[in-house]
Structure formats: structure tokens, C-alpha cells
């Protein structure tokens, strides 16, 4: 019989992991303070939770003193709010934010969790990789083991998405961009009914590439196809790819990072495309376009890099926990 979370024996079994989590939070704050970052705290209930097509937010409502009502959503990331602060001139900032993603739940996913997110004006992709690796080495033991995988943090591997597809799939993913049949042929797989290029891209990523990432050493998977740019800037040297990386440690996807897109017109175009896709998949776009964020970009956001890192997963790696529930107080 599973004990309720409030039961003393339930907490006792999790307490070593939770104490390690608390120490980890202190170490993270010390790391960013030493680098002259300002800790911030932005609203959790927002009018527009983001435009990621496959994330489902929790809905709520604000009731004003005069009885007026306004739909709000628990944010899936503090990204938009933190970028507004960059526009305002806040400089380097970080946040340990609670975030919500409806419909999620597994050994590595929870519907409510903590995101460590930081932004650094003027940062390059190399800067972000070096800083993220430095964060791992400053807050974790030199060698970590989680879910049966041991990773040595003394060095890290960098691999582009294109190189990963050549190595593990045998396909030129950039040459096939947008052409699902071409990618299926190059990968030697059968295209499933209704499967798009993006669907097949992620099937190959999950099945053939991710099992090799971040095992002996941390793995930075860089330069994602432009179709996966999200809020990242295209690489000026090769517009087929975006200046983005994902980080894997102990075989776990731990962080996602961008050199941020600051062009309001291109961001609006991407938002509108995402909203159209979400409306097709879910029946409607869900919430109004975030015009306030777009106005902030138009006003002028400085060139910057940003990283979103799953703090609960970092706590799992720090403590050796097997389940995300083990490192959550709730």
C-alpha cells in the first residue's frame, strides 16, 4: 500500500533527497551571486503562458474588486517575463521558478516543478555552454550517478544535431528538412501514417540519438534545425540551424538554451505559426497573442543568451534519486 505524502514514513524515505535539494538551491544561488546575477521573481499567473504547441497550461481566473473577470494561466516557463526585464535593463538575471505543465507525469516529469532559468546579455553559445558546465561542476560532485548511469563532470562533449544524425542515424537531417519521406528513406525507417517531418525527427531523436547522450560525460547537443528554433535566433553563419543547445547528464535531458531571438517581426511570425498549429491540434489557439511581449521586443531587447534547467532533475542527479517525486516536498 502506498503511503500518503503527509505520512511521517513517506517523508522519512524522501528526507535525504530533500535535504540535498535544499543544499543544492543554496549552491545555485551562491554560484549566480558570485557572477553578479540578480535573482528575480516574476508572476506565476499570466495572460499568455507561452506559445509552445505541445505544452498544456493550467487555467485559472482573476476576479477584480469590481467583479470583472479575466482568464489567466499558470505559466509553463518564466521566459517571457524575464525577457521583459532584459528590455527594461535588468542585466544578468536568474530565477528558481515554480512552473506548471498539465498532463505531464512520469519518473522524470511532474505537472508542477521548479525551473532554474537565467539570462545573460551579450552571451554567445560558447559562453552559455561554458557557464552551464561551470554550474554543474560548482554544485555537483565530480562524478555523479543517477538512474544507473554514471557521468564524469570533469569534461563535456559537444555535438551538433546534424553530426548526431550522421553518427547515430546515418542521415543528413538538414538536407531533408521539411521532407518526411526523404528523412525516412535516409534513416532506413518506414514513415508512419500521418507522420510529419517533425514527428519523425523526434522519433529518431528519442529512439536512436538520446540513448547515447550525456552518459560518460555531460553532452551538449547544439545547432538545432531552424524548424526547432522556438525562441532561438538562427545562426548567422548557417540559417538552416538555430543557436540552441540541449544538455544531457546521466542520460537525462537537463537543460535547454537559446541565443535569444530579438527581432519582433520574426517572433510574431513564429508565434502565429505556432498558434495555427495549436488551433489545429487542440481546437483553438487557447489565449490571446502576447502583444505586450512583442511590444517589448520592438522597443529593443539586448542580444542575450538564456538557459532553462530542470532544477528537480538536477536535484535527482545530485542526490541519486530515481524518481522526480523523491526530490519534491509536495
Give a written overview of the molecule:
- This protein is an alpha+beta fold and 330 residues long.
- The protein has one domain: 2-Layer Sandwich (BirA Bifunctional Protein, domain 2), CATH 3.30.930.
- Helix content is 36%, strand content 25%.
- It has helices at residues 8-34, 79-88, 125-139, 161-168, 180-187, 197-209, 264-282, 291-300, 311-319, and strands at 38-39, 45-46, 58-63, 69-74, 93-100, 112-121, 143-146, 149-152, 157-160, 219-225, 234-235, 238-249, 252-259, 304-310.
- Strands 1, 5, 6, 9, 10, 11, 12, 13 and 14 form a 9-stranded mixed β-sheet that branches. Strands 2-4-3 form a 3-stranded antiparallel β-sheet, with no helix packed on it.
- β12 and β13 form a beta hairpin.
- It is globular.
- It starts with 7 loop residues before the first helix and ends in an 11-residue tail after the last helix.
Point out poorly predicted stretches. none
Q: Please give the CATH architecture.
A: 2-Layer Sandwich
Which CATH C-level class is it? Alpha Beta
Give the total of beta strands: 14
For the record, give the distance between the C-alpha atoms at the N and C termini, rounded to a whole number: 19 Å
Mean of residue pLDDT?
95
Percent of residues in beta strands? 15-25%
Task: Report the total helices.
Answer: 9
CATH fold descriptor: BirA Bifunctional Protein, domain 2
What order do the helices and strands come in, and which of them pair?
Blueprint: H1 8-34, E1 38-39, E2 45-46, E3 58-63, E4 69-74, H2 79-88, E5 93-100, E6 112-121, H3 125-139, E7 143-146, E8 149-152, E9 157-160, H4 161-168, H5 180-187, H6 197-209, E10 219-225, E11 234-235, E12 238-249, E13 252-259, H7 264-282, H8 291-300, E14 304-310, H9 311-319
Helix pairs in contact: 1-9, 2-8, 5-6, 7-8
